[in-house]
Design brief:
The chain is about 30% helix and about 15% strand. By secondary structure, it is α/β, with parallel strands linked by helices. The chain has one domain: Phosphatidylinositol (PI) phosphodiesterase (TIM Barrel, Alpha-Beta Barrel). Helix 1 links the parallel strand 1 and strand 2. It is globular, with a radius of gyration of 20 Å. It catalyses: a sn-glycero-3-phosphodiester + H2O = an alcohol + sn-glycerol 3-phosphate + H(+).
Length: about 350
C-alpha cells in the first residue's frame, strides 16, 4: 500500500526532476535513488510506452539523445521521422521497440557538455520501467512521493496506444488511488487530465509552457491558461499548476532575477498550488545575479534562486539538484544564517 508523507512534511516540496539529474543520467533508477538519498520529497519520472505496452521512463519517446541506441547497428533500420505536435522529429522511438529490446540499451547524459560528471556514468544504467520505479519508492525507509508525467498522451492514443486507463490501473494495483496518496500525475495537455480526473481521485498537475499552447488544444494558449479565468478552468480538474519559473519571477533585460508576477497569488486564489520548473545548479541556467565565475558548467548559487521563489510563495519546486533544494529550504527557516552567508559571499567578491 502506498505510504503517505507525514502530515508535518516540510513545505515547499522538493521534487527531484528526472531524479538527481544534475549528477546522474536522467530517468534511471540510480538517479532516482540518489535523489531520495539526498532527501527529495518526491521524484519526477516521465513515462512513454514501448511497442508491447510497457511504461518506461524517458523524457521523450525519441531516445537518440538519452541512450546509446545510435551505437546499436541492429536497430539502424528503425531510424525514422515522425510528425507529432505539429513537428517532424527524426530518430528512434520507444513505441517501435519491445521492452526486451530497450533493455539492451544504456542511458546517456543529454547535457554532456554542461554535466561531464554525470556523463561519466554514460553506458552504465538501464532504462527503468514504471513497475521498477514503484518498487523503488515503496522499499525506502521513509515516505517518498511520486510526480509522474505522461508524455504526449494524445499522440500515443492516435497510434492506438492510449495511456490513461492503463496507467491508472497499474498505479491502483500498487496502492495509489486516492487524493491522500503521495502522488500527482502531470501533463501538458488538457484532455488527458480531464479524462484522468474522471478516472481517479489521484491529484493532477496542469503543466504550462513559456510560449505556445497545449498540443491538444490549438485554440488555447498558455498565456490564456494562466490568466485568472484560465486558472479557474484548470482548478475544475487539476490541483497544481506547473509553470516555467520565468512565469513566476521574470528575468530582467540583463538576465538577473526580477520581481514576482501575480501568478502565485492568482493561482492560489483559484485553489491551485504552484510548483514551477526547472531549477538547475549550473551557471548556464541561473540568473546572472546568482552565477559564480564565467564557466557555464560551474555551479553557481542555486539555493539563493530557490529561496527567492520560496519567498514568492511557491508550494514546491522541480529541481535537477534536490540536495541543493533541501539546503535552500533549510536556509529559508534560518534567516540569521542566510544573512551571514550573504555577508561572507560579499566579502569573498562573489557576483
Amino acid at each position: 500500500m502506498a505510504q503517505a508523507p507525514t502530515d508535518d512534511a516540510a513545505l515547499p516540496l522538493i521534487i527531484a526532476h528526472r531524479g538527481a539529474s544534475a549528477e546522474r543520467p536522467e530517468h534511471t533508477l540510480e538517479a532516482y535513488q540518489l535523489a531520495i538519498d539526498q532527501g527529495a520529497d518526491y521524484i519526477e519520472p516521465d513515462f512513454v510506452l514501448t511497442r508491447d505496452g510497457v511504461f518506461v521512463a524517458r523524457h521523450e519517446h525519441e531516445i537518440s539523445g538519452t541512450t546509446d541506441i545510435a551505437d546499436h547497428p541492429e536497430f539502424a533500420d528503425r531510424h525514422t521521422t515522425k510528425t507529432y505536435n505539429g513537428e517532424a522529429v527524426t530518430g528512434w522511438f520507444t513505441e517501435d521497440f519491445t521492452l526486451a529490446e530497450l533493455r539492451t540499451l544504456r542511458a546517456r547524459e543529454p547535457l554532456a557538455e554542461l554535466r561531464p560528471a554525470s556523463a561519466a556514468y554514460d553506458g552504465q544504467f538501464a532504462i527503468a520501467t514504471l513497475e521498477e520505479i514503484l518498487a523503488l519508492v515503496q522499499r525506502q525507509d521513509r515516505p517518498v512521493g511520486l510526480m509522474p508525467e505522461l508524455k504526449h498522451p494524445s499522440y500515443f492514443r492516435s497510434i492506438g496506444m492510449p495511456m490513461e486507463e492503463a496507467f491508472i490501473e497499474q498505479l491502483a494495483a500498487a496502492g495509489y488511488a486516492s487524493a491522500d496518496d503521495p502522488i500527482f500525475i502531470q501533463a501538458f495537455e488538457i484532455a488527458p487530465l480531464v479524462q484522468l480526473n474522471a478516472l481517479t481521485d489521484i491529484r493532477l498537475v496542469q503543466l504550462v509552457g513559456d510560449a505556445g499552447g497545449p498540443s491538444d488544444a490549438p485554440d488555447t494558449t498558455y498565456a490564456d491558461m494562466v490568466s485568472p479565468a484560465g486558472l479557474a478552468e484548470i482548478a475544475a480538474y487539476a490541483d497544481i499548476l506547473g509553470p516555467p519559473k520565468n512565469r513566476v519571477i521574470a528575468r530582467t533585460e540583463d538576465g538577473a532575477l526580477g520581481e514576482p508576477t501575480s501568478l502565485v497569488a492568482d493561482a492560489h486564489a483559484a485553489g491551485l498550488l504552484v510548483v514551477p520548473w526547472t531549477f538547475r545548479p549550473e551557471n548556464h541556467f541561473l540568473p546572472t545575479n546568482f552565477r559564480v565565475g564565467n564557466d557555464p558548467r560551474a555551479d553557481g548559487r542555486p539555493s539563493e534562486e530557490m529561496i527567492a521563489f520560496f519567498r514568492a510563495g511557491v508550494d514546491g519546486i522541480f529541481t535537477d539538484d534536490p540536495e541543493e533544494g533541501i539546503y535552500a529550504r533549510y536556509l529559508l527557516e534560518r534567516p540569521g544564517l542566510m544573512r551571514e552567508l550573504a555577508r561572507e559571499a560579499q566579502e569573498n567578491g562573489e557576483n
